[in-house]
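Quick one - inputs below.
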Amino acid sequence: MTALAGITVIDVSGSISTSYCAKLFADYGATVINLEPSRGFKTRAEPPFTQTGGDGENSALHAYLSTNKQSVVLDKLTPAQLSTLLQQADLVLDDTNPIIDPPASLSRMTISWYGTTGPMADFTGTDAQMYAMNGMLRMIGEPNAAPYIPTGYQAQMVAGATAFIGAMGHILSRELGNAEGAVQLETSILESVMCFTDVGAISAHNTGIEASRLGVNRFPPTYPLGVFPCKDGWLGVTVLTPSQWHAFCDLLDLQELADIPLFQSSAGRLEALDIIEPRFTEQLLKHSAEDLFYRGQKARIPLARVPTMEELFMVDQFVKRDAFCNADLGHTKLTVPSTPFRLHATPPTFGGPVATLGKHTEAYIDG
Amino acid sequence: MDNRALQGIRVIDLSMGWAGPLAARHLADMGAQVIKVESCERFDWWRSWEATPEWIEDDGAEKSVAFNMVNRNKKNLTLDLENPHGRALLLDLVKEANVVVENYSGAVLPKLGLSYEVFKAVNPKIILLSMPAFGADGPWAEFRAYGSTVEQSSGLPHLNGTENDLPTMHHVAYGDAMGGITGGAALLVALRHQARTGEGQFVDLSQVEGLFPLGIHGILAQSAQGHPPERNGNRHGGIAPHGVYPCQGDDDWIVIQVFTEAQWSALKQKSGLTFGDLNDRLAHTDELDEALAAWTRPQESGALMRELQELSIPAAATYKTSQLLNHEQLTARQFWQWRERAFVGKQPNPSAPYRAGTAPLQIDTPAPTLGEHNHDVLNGILQLSEKKIAELEAEGIVGTKPRMPSK
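Output:
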């Protein structure tokens, strides 16, 4: 038995956020139907593209988001067939530009950039804007240059997962008998990414201290923290507690720095970074990142290997855990991340087939 | 759906820091009874990782903004889990619970003589969410990590900044908040199965794997095309202008991204810039960015954002964290809920990022103080007598004040 068997979700927008939200339902066994326009959801036209397959069937992003979902083309359905299809839904997912306006009798989760109310409700949104608005963007980069935009679709993915929580909470509340009837739910992408900076905002309120951009990978109150080159590969360093600092000094043969009173706190080390950083970066270059990572973790220092995209699929931990799986587009198989949480008694489906546009339409015409 | 949606669900929250407590907070916000369990010596490290006797004397444990932010709507019980009586009381609580959440590094729970099997023996329907950084199995299962370690391990830093930068992190503990969201999602799936079948289970969450979806553009480029995306800083290979441009004032900026020719036409008319179609703009990106920056520099970022948005041009001012409590959109949507909290006074709390209707889920209670609900839980749920509770206090198994670790 799968955990979400018996739940039907219909995505009537096909945004990245609604698609990721729906993907989590599909991974755990819910029936998820992409109700697509005749040209297909816009994710079908999003790069990167596979080297095989025609237009609309070659988007790697769409493939990742769409495993184990059904694809139905709206224009092929009569109003009666559409009505029958919609009646099956426990939840409809949409953004502010849905392909249909679902009946009010259905529970609906709307995911929008800024929320459906407020003075910015009609603003045009992008992932970069979300990070500009939540205060995070201006902290990334060098102090005397423009701050950096976090790349990709990060805000939309965060919101998709966040909306899943709200939607599942609603479905569960009905099944527990704590609620009944249809509800209009919503998730604002901006409010979703506030999870990264709400602590900073409240801290600023209490202390009056504004977080400033100190440079790439420099962010108080922790030091040393960052990604540093080694003889080969990259090492992620986070040294927070006095015991971690001592172990870090031992690891790099820098015992003479270990007991200096100022260096026992993160703030003190940050104050003295001009002294500390040249010393340890020089030592890092003498060792391989792999070697330091394993020795450091043995000494209880939270060090990290920082894999490139090319290395990511070969990291032993990720291989051992099947952290990546295959999305099957028919014409090719694509390596994609597996479901990010695993229920042991009711495991998710890792990977799976990606429906071509309209593949399941006939089933709903035939009833 | 409201803040009673999960009424009847009980969660024992053993987690510390950001990710685990945030996962449990999602359930608390929807009405589950979440009992956070700490000990007076092994208290949540997010209260402080550099505790001193002076900090304890000054009630520092109650003044952590971070701790208070992720633990609202919960109850707080202190139990020394290294003491057999404390451990036994925890198991008594587990008997009456739906969920246990933990995010210790892999070695800690076994050291306490606790595991999913132990919890299951006292309560077959229990769900245990375990959320170590790298997952519950594999060669790194017991490795230590913070949110920064999680981000580093996900490869995400290789996707930001330029080729000339070090792999560039996000300057917040990125893995933590995402781990909390993923954990909240996992719990609801497991609870749904439990509600239908009465069956509990072990839930294994690798926080690193929870970050892969955020680096999906890099992962898919590698997978589909055999190479990662170029690290272009703020530029985009197929879009121009696309960047962060200076505005009037100290370190004020505006993000402008022009995706369509209609947007460019509007910006061209507004700014007076003379560049042509996309091909022309991509061929002259340096000049375009320079000219656009010259136009934005004397302007106030918020006003310019609104003017550009009026024209449907994607633009956003880069807000400072100190501006977020007065952010016009967040304020209009009642995102910040102010609640009185002992030791720190009236404090802002971020609303749950999902809502039913137009109003946010109401926050019932601020973060509890250490051991605030000892009596409620020990007497009210576990039916211990006043005398027994007094004995536990005398033995230091429960308490309301942190102590420096004795070992």
